[in-house]
Amino acid sequence: MTEQPPGAEFALSFDTVAAQYASARPGYPPELFDTVERLAALGPGGLRGTRVLDVGAGTGIATRLLRERGGRVIAVEPGPGMGAELRRTLPDVPLVRAVGDALPFADASVDLVTYAQSWHWTDPARSVPEALRVLRPGGALALWWNVPDPDVEWTRAQETRLQARLPGYHRHGVAADAPGIITALGPTPAFRRLHWTRRIPVDLHLAHLGSRSYFAVMGPERSAPVLADERAHLLRHFPDGMVEDAYALDLTIVRRA
Predict the structure, then answer these.
(1) Which helix (H) or strand (E) holds 201?
(2) Could you give the CA distance from residue 153 to residue 224 in angstroms, rounded to a whole number?
(3) How many CA atoms lie within 13 A of 197 on its CB side?
(4) Partners of 142 in beta bridges
(5) Which of 57, 71, 163 is nearest to 112 (CA)?
């Protein structure tokens, strides 16, 4: 039996919450793509005209933004539910059913491989060599995650509550660990942490929480009391019902020689 990466049993759980994922998950600020273009040395045209594989594309949140920057994007997504949601909103984007550990693309055929919120579902010993294989010389692998900003008191407190209440709750440590994991495999990565916020209704924040894999696996009946308690905490902190969602956006870039 092929060994699964840690937590891979949760990877396809998003299919059960695909529509919720699409509507509740945050996007990414323009500063992210500015930084990707700079660290990947994409040249004066940036993403415009580059051939991009967006792996673990999910419902297409990053796919759409990459395309808006001018990338010629192919979405790679293993989940049928998530892929169907992507197809609904981005019908003209090529969609390939595959995983990052075995990319069905030719050697040196793309300029950029991206993973938005998805690289932790791969086996790095397979996915990093696969990305480097399909990248042209000078191309780049870009991994990024929005994570609750640990520098903001209320987000830090929420993550602490959830971790204490839910055994095995997945904190997104792999985002910060990615440079070390990749360095151990040979390539030398660059790492940046960006900070950004979005102001959203409390219900949207709770829907975002409910779209996380841990909650998707729990199911709505078991999730409901946890989310109800979080609502009470949030309304004490944000009495107007509008949450200042705060994110640290961790980006890792590896260039192919």
Answers:
(1) strand 190-201
(2) 24
(3) 11
(4) 114, 253
(5) 71
Burial of 239 by CB count in 10 Å (0-12 exposed, 13-18 middle, 19+ buried)? exposed
User: How high is the pLDDT of residue 34?
Assistant: 97
Half-sphere exposure of 215 (CA within 13 A, CB side): 20
Output the CA torsion sign for 123, 151, 113, 211: positive
Q: Given CA atoms 212, 215, 221, 223 in this order, what sign does their dihedral have?
A: negative
- The domains of the chain, with CATH numbers, are 8-150+171-198+246-255 (3.40.50.150)
pLDDT tens column, 233-257: 999 999 999 999 999 999 999 999 8
pTM of the model: 0.90
CA–CA gap between residue 216 and residue 129 (Å, rounded): 31
Q: At what angle do helices 153-165 and 220-237 cross, to 10 degrees?
A: 150
Give 10: exposed, middle or buried? Use CB within 10 Å, 0-12, 13-18, 19+: middle
Left if phi > 0, otherwise alpha if psi is -120 to 50, otherwise beta: which for 63?
Answer: alpha
What does the DSSP 8-state code read for residue 17? G
Question: What is the reported pLDDT for 221?
Answer: 87
d(Cα 257, Cα 254) in Å, to the nearest integer? 9
Q: Cα–Cα distance between 106 and 1 in angstroms, integer? A: 26
Cα separation, 241 vs 142, in Å, equals 35
